[in-house]
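Fold these two proteins, one after the other.
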Amino acid sequence: MIKTLWIALLTMLFTTASWGASTYTYSITANPYTSVGGTPAYYTVGLNASGSFTMASQLAPSLSSVEVRASVTAFSFDDGMGNLITQANATSKSFVVTTDLNGNITAFDVSVSATGTPNESIRFYTGDGGGVQVSYGSKSATRTGNPGSFSMTTAVTPDVATTSVPTLSQWALITLAGLMLAGVALHNRRQRRLF
């Protein structure tokens, strides 16, 4: 019984635990619009859309046009005029990505829309030459060609419990482990004397 307790304590001592969860945020700042539509004009050439989406785990390597919206935990996209489409107001969303051997996005077709007054939509895509399309009611803006690229940032967020967990320093842990091993050796030596 004592031996099992010591083994359990040693295992806990030398096991590294994660006290938070990692989130992976993929951000895009699109290149400027090349044409605008609607009368009177709402958007202007030179504005650009931007946005990001967050996942609990990094995108897998070597994906080829895979829809990953089920893994997206949050997103926010701006058409350049301050009109946001987020997870809270979106009525449709699609996150189709292709990744390289390291899980970096190399091609994408990301679109989000919100039905309301007015209807809004934002799309970034690399297929068919690439581009950006946004609309706000009857107003629209597009970019033909290179839409921009996604970059990834990783952040460690604390777990739900926000209380800090006290830990010992590295040398204190080594000393404690040594004392525990000495205690086990002493216990085994006393057991042998009894028999």
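Now the second one:
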Amino acid sequence: MTSTVQLSPEFKKQQIAIPNPEEVSAYLGQHCDLADLLPALCARARNEFGFETELSLEIYQDPEIEDHYLTLYVRQPANEEKIIERIEAIAASYEEDLADKTGWLLLTTDFGPPRSKHGV
């Protein structure tokens, strides 16, 4: 049986979209140390990108190998020129904190448009 964790109320406050909350909760149940850091990272991303940008917390499943990990997607209505540099700056500020976690978190964009109008 897989344990789950209750998702932080901060995700709702920060309007973080979570299309499959059961999957995310189960992943965080396996990697509780990552769950502790995640609200601060999401708040930093929201502060950087504002509320016009969709932040979506999802489990990425690699189609070629048996691997999955947590991903925070940054999706803008019109992708700005420096989106990658801004994402990398946030990721770099958490790199040391993430290094010793049991799970994996990727902060990225898929260059797609927002999929939802609101977060959770």
